[in-house]
Sequence to fold (334 residues):
Amino acid sequence: MADDKKIIFSGMQPSGLITLGNYLGALNNWTKLQDDYNCLYCIVDMHAITVRQDPAKLRKQSRDLLIQYIACGLDPEKNIIYYQSHVPQHAELGWILNCYTYMGELNRMTQFKEKSSKHADNINAGLFTYPTLMAADILLYQTDLVPVGEDQRQHLELTRDIAGRFNTIYGDTFKIPEGYIGKVGARIMALQEPTKKMSKSDENKNNTIALMDEPAVIMNKIKRAVTDSDNQVRFSEEKPGISNLLNIYCASTGYTLAEAEKEFENVGYGAFKTAVGEAVVANLEPVQAKVRELEKNKDYIDTIIKVNAEKAGRLADRTLRKVHKKIGFSARIK
Ligand code: ATP
Ligand code: LTN
Fold:
């Protein structure tokens, strides 16, 4: 890694098939950062088990996610793409940071409240301490910038608080990270319920477009997307369905909202939806072809998994050794 570049860290949970929302809101933006920053993109499988996962599915989803990262344009030579569970330093620092995080702080996390009401039969300690593991992910690499969506802002603030607290007690140890919200941070909403976010763990598959959905499936889902009855293609808070489709169209084509509204000024919803569907298909088809090609290349993917975990481990070790020394753990005997 070049020393003069700032460090970016982000992660995605392998908790389902990645969606058009993940692609337009995150991955597509990440690819634009790879030349100017040193980037680490982690597949956070240890975070995923805070809710119950099927083992075979988790393994497959993790590999699919790694392949999809690369197919979307993240160069595995320029970015460190790896599985969290292959770098045990995450868990080690996570434990240490638990001892510098207050119950009251974790109790305030809205994601914890939401997930514990959704999974009332499995409110486990991991779900509660999820944010300290996330802080460890970020702080291990002396990260400068963390690209995340709005929903992760609270976790990032907590990360900054924990890092600041540790630095106050022991002297400068961790870089205090900043959030990084991309310029085209399109927030894609669920197709059938356009007031809530499109989410890969949504059980209603008509709400989401998966990155690997067939063209006919994509066209069909967009045609069935919920709209309204005034038949005007216009961006407005009162028209969440149409506004969402406009957003999808703009993020897929690069047009501005004003340009798109003009293009569809005298066009009915049917033709508009066809245009949106075609734009999404055109955008995803090359990515899907690349996924199919990479899936055939088992050895190449295995090498990336191995080499990148080693790279991440070396970087993580530097911070972890510093932390051990500061808190008074004995040095290892060589
Ligand atoms: P889950 O359903 O497991 O909570 P998710 O699909 O909501 O997953 P995350 O894994 O939480 O996605 O987020 C991965 C990245 O994708 C984050 O940077 C997040 O901001 C972005 N992202 C997720 N959903 C959307 C969306 N609907 N629109 C834009 N960006 C999104
Ligand atoms: N909590 C995040 C995933 C995540 C993450 C991270 C993001 C885990 N560790 C570190 C950025 C940095 C989510 O659910 N989107």
Summary: The two ends are 27 Å apart (CA to CA). Residues 298-327 form the longest helix (30 residues). The chain is about 55% helix and 5% strand.
